[in-house]
Amino acid sequence: MKSYLVKGQVIEGVDLANCQMHKDDRGSFTEVFQDSWGTAIDPCQWSVVSSEANVFRGCHIHLRHDEYFCLLSGEASVGLRDERPDSPTFGHWQLYRLFGADLAALTFPVGIVHGWYFHTPSMHLQAVSESYVDYGADDNIGVHWADPALEIPWEFSDPVIAQRAAEFGSLENLRSEVEALRGSMS
Ligand SMILES: Cc1cn([C@H]2C[C@H](O)[C@@H](COP(=O)(O)OP(=O)(O)O[C@H]3O[C@H](C)C(=O)[C@H](O)[C@H]3O)O2)c(=O)[nH]c1=O
Q1: How far is the CA of 136 from the centre of ligand 1 (A)?
Q2: Which of 28, 50, 30 is closest to 125 using CA atoms?
Q3: Of 87, 105, 167, 170, which is least packed with CB atoms within 10 Å of its CB?
Q4: Where is this site: Participates in a stacking interaction with the thymidine ring of dTDP-4-oxo-6-deoxyglucose (predicted)?
Q5: Residues near 151 by beta carbon (within 8 Å), at least 6 away in sequence
Q6: Is residue 162 within 6 Å of ligand 1 at its C-beta?
Q7: What distance in angstroms lies between residue 49's CA and the mean position of ligand 1's atoms?
Q8: 27 CA distance to ligand 1 centroid (A)?
């Protein structure tokens, strides 16, 4: 059976004159975070998360912390929707497809609805700017991934989700919860 190639290599043929492939056979070295990048996040907690295929995590929104996501292995789709009333992209969404074999990091600020689906067994790096022990109880509002109001064209239909995520309500419900949390924070 043809193996799933992820390493650049010669498949077949003759080494042609003056043609060469240049790569570091020791492996690779990728900086996955730098303060100097000026991203939206100042991390205070880093987590390594493993997920089985067909698992969906989210959708959540936070009002006090920003997030970082970097897929290290596997294949994932990340959906984001802007729920910041004062943002020029309020009500818009974006869907990303990420591959562990092509490292990329995503950072997004408070007020962005987010969720990630894993097409294959995957591992990712996740960072937050407020520790889970501080935000987990109150600033982890959710919306059901299948709510049409999200408008995110997910490419899956029956994911494995947490019981809590299965009970998430509509985007309208999320907006009410967000207003209540904003009120309690002011
Ligand atoms: C987030 C987090 C979770 N946990 C424990 C709590 C549970 O026993 C277990 C799974 O937690 P949860 O179901 O919340 O994990 P996800 O469904 O991946 O949700 C997480 O990823 C989505 C997309 C979010 O944005 C949430 O903020 C975050 O909770 O890990 C920890 O011990 N530390 C942590 O920082």
Answers
A1: 8
A2: 50
A3: 167
A4: 135
A5: 81, 93
A6: yes
A7: 9
A8: 31
Residue having the nearest C-alpha atom to atom 4 of ligand 1: 132
Work out the burial of residue 84: count CB atoms within 10 Å of its CB; fewer than 13 is exposed, 13-18 middle, 19 or more buried.
middle
Amino acid at 124: H
Is the pLDDT at 1 greater than 50? The verdict is no
Residue 4 pLDDT > 60? no
The answer to whether 178 and 100 are in contact (CB under 8 A) is no
Range 4-185 has CATH code 2.60.120.10: yes
Residue 132, SS3? helix
Alpha carbon of 47 to ligand 1 centroid (Å): 10
Distances in whole angstroms, Cα of residue 116 to Cα of each of 89, 176, 182: 20, 23, 25
- Predicted TM-score (pTM) of the model is 0.90
Q: Which residues are CB-neighbours of 26 under 8 A, at least 6 positions away? A: none
Nearest protein CA to atom 32 of ligand 1, as residue: 132
Distance, CA of 143 to CA of 36 (rounded, Å): 33
Position 6 scores a pLDDT of: 64
Q: What was the pLDDT predicted at 5?
A: 63
Pocket flag, ligand 1, residue 58 (CB < 6 Å): yes
CB under 8 Å to 45, separation ≥6 — which residues? 127, 128, 130, 131, 132
Give me Rg for the CA atoms of the chain.
19
